[in-house]
Amino acid sequence: MAEETSKIPQATSKRLPLYYRFLQNFANAGKKRISSSELSEAMKIDAATIRRDFSHFGALGRKGYGYDVDHLLTFFRQTLDQDEETDVALIGVGSLGNAFLKYNFQKNHNTRIVVAFDPKAPNDGKPISNIPVYHPDMIEEKIKELNINLVIFTLPSKAAQEMADRLVKIGVKGILNFTPVRLSVPDWMRVHTIDLSVELQTLIYFIKNDVKDSQL
């Protein structure tokens, strides 16, 4: 029997959408079954890690056969609630925010941005990439009206904590934070911070160390 979701390691949970994406690619290519080694080669993840991740959910495959692609797709679709769309709000329509609005998630995922907020927008809203954009004065009203629980931060750093405090008061459950600010929020709210400058510096560090290692 699969373990409860709350007991699944965080690292495993973060890989689940990746597994789903690559399994879709295999299915689109007409693949009916795959081995952990084939999935490992495609994803560049160790096969032992894949088998360990899958083991948290019970017997997903059979020894000597591998994994049934359609079965895995169905399982991960249900696990990730891929059949249920999640509406998202975006706060801050600068360069990065505009990029999100133009791309939007509904093209490839089960999430979609349905509303955005920016100080340059009027209270009655204006469309950008077919998404209504309102002044931040309308945040509480619109988020409650649209029953939104997930918000993306692409706003200036100086406004991030104050905005998070406002979202806490109306019960928003999650923030995908693209500012470098480490937000202070209650335990019941989940924040995932993606600091692009830190990610870039980390990549530079590994590139330099890879070079050094190859010269030893």
TrEMBL record:
List the SMART domains.
CoA_binding
Q: List where the protein spans the membrane.
A: none
Protein known as:
Redox-sensing transcriptional repressor Rex
Please state the gene responsible for encoding this protein. rex
Q: Which residues bind NAD(+)?
A: 92-97
Xref: InterPro entries: CoA-bd (IPR003781), NAD(P)-bd_dom_sf (IPR036291), Rex_bacilli-type (IPR058203), Rex_DNA-bd_C_dom (IPR009718), Tscrpt_rep_Rex (IPR022876), WH-like_DNA-bd_sf (IPR036388), WH_DNA-bd_sf (IPR036390)
Q: What does this protein do?
A: Modulates transcription in response to changes in cellular NADH/NAD(+) redox state.
Family statement: Belongs to the transcriptional regulatory Rex family.
Q: Which SUPFAM superfamilies match?
A: NAD(P)-binding Rossmann-fold domains, Winged helix' DNA-binding domain
* Limits of the CoA-binding domain: 81-182
Q: Kindly state the subunit structure of this protein.
A: Homodimer.
Native organism:
Sporosarcina oncorhynchi
Record key words, sorted = Cytoplasm, DNA-binding, NAD, Repressor, Transcription, Transcription regulation
